[in-house]
Amino acid sequence: MSTATTTDSRGKREKAPAGERVADWADGRLGIYSLAKANMRKIFPDHWSFMLGEICLYSFIIIILTGVYLTLFFHPSMNEVEYHGVYVPMQGVLMSEAYASTLDISFEVRGGLLIRQIHHWAALVFLAGMLIHMMRVFFTGAFRKPREVNWLFGWLLLFLGLLTGFTGYSLPDDLLSGTGVRFTEGAILSVPVVGTYISFFLFGGEFPGGDFVARFYSIHILLLPGIMLGLVVAHLILVFYHKHTQFAGPGKSNKNVVGMPLLPVYMAKAGGFFFLVFGVIAAIAAIASINPIWAMGPYRPDMVSTGAQPDWYMGFAEGLIRLMPGWEINFWGHTLVLGVFIPAVVFPLVLVSIGVYPFVEAWVTGDKREHHILDRPRNAPTRTAFGVAWLVWFGVLMVGGGNDIWATHFHLSINAITWFGRIAFFAAPILAFIVTKRICLGLQRRDKDKVLHGRETGIIKRLPHGEFIEIHEPLSQEQLHTLTAHEQYKPAEIGPTVDENGVERRVSRTQKLRSKLSQGYYGENNQIPKPTAEEYKEITSGHGH
Question: pLDDT tens across 37-89, in order?
């Protein structure tokens, strides 16, 4: 037990400084010292790609801070009022209180427009950072055991971020956001049997009703952020508990972490990076205007804004709707709108497939070990090809979601763009998968050649007998380790279907499926064998030339 006193050079006891007494008081009740001693010197590896997660965290903090400020002035009501504010073009126009209060925030509240812009841009950066961060985790295999649960936390944060962004985007009740809400209402109504019930429950009656802004407001500022904040805390706790992943290199293994301590090095860098992110977002918000609601006008159900586009993260959902043919089925006096219902089913299925992928890969490989060393994407060609194929598919849908903008800006036929999107929806991911896999295998072959023969220097030498050769520089031990540290799996095999007594063994469909998938991941022509120590010795000894 510590005491709040000190002893001077003459042996007299003096009262400790006030700060030390406060720290001693807090430690005696909260156990802060022991907690800090165990965790504040935790080691974190230093790599630029790890900052992607920090961008997500810092932009989320910015969203919370600016959102709190905006809630002080926003009125989430759809009651109709006549505008008499400072924005002259809108004076005398009937609008909802939500829209009027957003105009007041933009033109009358000190710093209100800047805070609105920062809030919106931070949301865009947060979701962009989430997507890129998850792709980094995906391509490097950082989702493997024991981090599958943390992957699910990140996936839930991305999914909830989409919903939070959509509900916040809809709150001003302007013509652009109202068009997006109407779009969502159409997707809900396409759901057989229960679609109308869900729509009436969500909007409080016939669209647009009189309650959806208030309901979206509660969801946007209370329900979804509360869940997301809990997920962020759980995500960070698991990062601390599992320790951070790291790229392969000398001295790095699954049992250690090479890097800098949390205090003081990493915290100092993180603090500076937070203000850098805040400054960049504030600069973008001050320079680039986004969602100028005063130019759109208040929402009216009988009007649609020209060139209406959602925020980028909802672009692929709109692309699914726009590219889907307008098919309908009539039966029993009811119309099933397949042109909307099928995309409404595909959208969540795609999100679910992203969430469950770590468990699928673990089942295919049968690998139950812990992994703390990251893969180079080229050394997992099938996984990398899947990721690139998904990104290309996402890009195709983004083009489809903005087909009218592409048509007007590049003077193209909107029908041609739509048909291009429909064909590319199926063809582009397959082509991207094949090309990416071949590139990864080519990079593996180059790595193997560099290990065995060294790095090409570009220096040409002529031998005494007239032959010209290029000088190769041997790689350092660090480079050799990096190029050969990855592990290569063997594909799962079913084995003999008949035992030594001639009795046929039953093979389930699940086993056959797993074997085929495993062959697709790690079978012949799906990975290049690493150079062995014997091959390296043979080459470097001079006998291999």
Answer: 666 777 888 888 889 999 999 999 999 999 999 999 999 999 999 999 999 99
Cα(353)–Cα(359) distance, integer angstroms: 10
| CA–CA distance, 364 with 342 (Å, rounded to integer) | 29
Residue 337 φ/ψ, nearest 5 degrees: -85, 90
Q: Which of 520, 450, 525, 461 is nearest to 491 (CA)?
A: 520
- Quick one: pLDDT at residue 301? 82
Rounded to whole angstroms, how far apart are CA atoms 45 and 30?
30
pLDDT at 282: 97
Pinpoint the alpha helices (H) of 288-337: 293-296, 315-323
Rounded to whole angstroms, what are the CA distances from 210 to 175, 176, 200? 16, 18, 11
Q: Pull the structure tokens for residue 208.
A: 């647009």
CA-wise closest residue to 249 among 521, 478, 442: 478
Phi, psi of 77 (to 5 degrees): -135, 145
For the chain, what is the largest distance between any 2 Cα atoms, rounded to a whole number of angstroms?
99
Q: Which two tokens stand for residue 39?
A: 């965790």
**Residue 43, strand partner residues:** 261
Residue-level pLDDT at 469: 83
Q: What is the DSSP string of 66-131?
A: HHHHHHTT------EEE--SS-GGGTT-EEEHHHHHHHHHHHTSTTHHHHHHHHHHHHHHHHHHHH
Q: How far apart are the first and last CA of the chain?
A: 72
What is the C-alpha to C-alpha distance for residues 198 and 264, in angstroms, rounded to an integer? 52
Q: How far is CA 266 from CA 32, 34, 260, in A?
A: 20, 20, 6
**Dist CA 347 CA 376 (whole Å):** 30
Amino acid at site 395: G
Q: Token match 């600016």: residue? A: 66
> Are 378 and 440 spatial neighbours (Cβ–Cβ below 8 Å)?
yes
Stretches in the chain below the pLDDT threshold 70: 1-16, 19, 33-39, 305-306, 499-502, 541-545
